[in-house]
Amino acid sequence: MTSSDAPIAWLALDEGTPILASDGEEVGRVATVVADEQKDIFSGVTFRPGLFEGQRFVPASAIDRLTEGAVHLNITAAQTETLEAY
């Protein structure tokens, strides 16, 4: 396991971290971590799929794991196109 594959907590997730769909395609980069730090509740992340597109919300239920190198989703790149706007 390389350091970029090491699991991390959502509190350590940085903006700009790549978001990888289950088929390996990078669908964007973390724009915002959506959470309630006071209650330690992680809701998900937002990303912008294209330069001129609005942000989309990835719920925590669609996230397989968080690592130092990427947010790994349990949905395909095509499925991310149906995620809600944020």
Q: Can you walk me through this structure?
A:
This protein is mainly beta. Helix content is 5%, strand content 37%. The chain has one helix and six strands. It has one helix at 77-80, and strands at 18-20, 26-36, 41-47, 56-59, 63-66, 71-73. It has a six-stranded mixed β-sheet, with no helix packed on it. The protein is globular and about 30 Å long. The chain starts with 17 loop residues before the first strand and ends in a 6-residue tail after the last helix. 19% of the residues are buried. The mean pLDDT is 94.
List the helices and strands and how they pair.
Layout: E1 18-20, E2 26-36, E3 41-47, E4 56-59, E5 63-66, E6 71-73, H1 77-80
Parallel strand pairs: 1-6
Antiparallel strand pairs: 1-2, 2-3, 3-4, 5-6
Q: H/E series, N to C?
A: EEEEEEH
Please state the structural category. Answer: mainly beta
Q: Characterize the largest beta sheet: strand count, sense, and whether it forms a barrel.
A: 6 strands, mixed
Q: Helix segment count?
A: 1
Cα(first) to Cα(last) distance is 34 Å
Principal-axes shape call:
globular
Question: Order of strands across the widest beta sheet?
Answer: 4-3-2-1-6-5
Radius of gyration from the alpha-carbon trace, in angstroms = 12 Å
- Summarize the amount of helix as a percent range: under 10%
DSSP strand (E) fraction?
A: 35-45%
Mean pLDDT: 94
Number of strands: 6
Low-confidence stretches: none
Describe this structure in a few short sentences.
The protein has 86 residues and is mainly beta.
Structure keywords:
single chain, 86 residues, mainly beta, 6-stranded mixed β-sheet
